[in-house]
Amino acid sequence: MMLRNQVLIWIGLLLALILVLWVFRGILLPFVVGAALAYLLNPLVNQLQKWRFNRVWATVVVLLCMMAIVVTLFSIFVPLIGQQIIGLIQRLPAYFSDLQQLATRYSPELNEWLGPERAAQVQVSINDLTRNALGFIATLPAELVNIGLTGAAVVGFTILSPVVAFYLLLDWEGMVRGIDGLLPQTHKAEIKGILRDIDRSMAGVIRGQGGVLLIDAAYYATALSLIGLNYGLAVGLIAGLMSFIPFAGFTLGLGLSVGIAIVQFAPNWWMVAGVASIFLFWQFIEGNVLYPKLVGSSININPVWMMFALLALGAVFGFVGLLLAVPMAAIASVLVRYGVRKYKESSLYLGSDDGKSSDDAAA
C-alpha cells in the first residue's frame, strides 16, 4: 500500500510538471537556456571556489568569461555565417533547378546505366525533392515564428538567460541542500543513487554530446570550406548542429553538400566523391572515437526513442521542447532502467514465496 501511494504521488508530480511546462511553454526559453548554462558552468565555479574564490566572485568571473568568448565568436563569425546562410537559402531553388537540368542532360547515360524504369524513378524523385524543398523554403519564416524564433524572443533569451544562469549558479549549493533535505529518509540513499545516475546522464547529454556537436560543426564547416564547396561554411554548421537528432545532421549535410557539389563540380565526379567522403569519414570517427570518449555509456538511449522524444516534445512545446527532448529522454532512460531493475528484483517477477511453497507441497 505504501509503495502504491508513493508511485501515485510521483506520477501525480510528473503530470503536474508536464502541465506547468505546457501552460508556460511560451516563456520557458530563457529559463531553459539559463538552467543549461548554469548546469554546464557549475563545475568551473566549484573549481574557482577550491582556489579560495568567493561563490559570488567565482560566478561573476565564469559568466563574464563565457559571455566574452561568446560575444567575440559572434562578432567574428556571425556576419560571415549569416551571409552564407541567407545566400544558401536564396540559392537553393536555383540549385534544385540545376539538378533537374543535369538529370535531363544526363538522362541518356542514366537510361543506359540504370535502365529506363529506374532512370524515370530518379527523375521523379528529383522533381518531388525540388517541390518539397521549395515548399519548405517558402514556409520557413512562418515556421520560425511558430516555434518562437522571432527577433524579440532571441533578444529576450539573450538578455535573460545569463541573468537566470547567474542566480542559479549563485544558489546552486543551497538548492542541492534543499532538495536533499526533502528526500524521504527511508529511501534517501536509493533516491540519491538515482539522482547520481541522472546527473551522469545529463552530463553526458549537455557536456559530452554538446562537445560532439561543436566538434562536428567545426570539422564539417572547415573541411567543406577547404575543399571549395559553395556555402560550405553554412552547410557544415547546419550539419554539425543538427547532429543532436540521430542521423539527421549526417543525412541532411550529406544530401545538401553532394547536391551542391554535383551542380558546382560536374562532370568532375572525383570532387563530388571527395565531398561525400568528408561525411562518410567523419561518421566513422564520430561513432568510434568521439562518442565513446566524450559521451561514453552515460546516454543509453535507442535512436528511435530519441527521435520520438524530439518529435513529440517539439510538437507539444515547440522550440523549447526540442531543447528539453534530449535531457528529458536521458532522465527517462535512467528511470526506466531503474524500474526494470526493481521489477526483476520483485516477487512479481521472481514469484512469491507462498507460490513456491505450495508448488513444493504439491510435488
Automatic annotation (TrEMBL):
It is found in: Cell membrane. The chain crosses the membrane at residues 7-23, 29-45, 57-81, 147-170, 210-231, 237-262, 269-285, 305-336. GO terms for biological process: transmembrane transport. InterPro entries: AI-2E-like. It is a multi-pass membrane protein. One of its GO terms (cellular component) is plasma membrane. The keyword Flavoprotein does not apply. Keywords: Cell membrane, Membrane, Transmembrane, Transmembrane helix, Transport. The keyword Membrane applies. Pfam families: AI-2E_transport. Belongs to the autoinducer-2 exporter (AI-2E) (TC 2.A.86) family. This is AI-2E family transporter. It comes from Devosia elaeis.
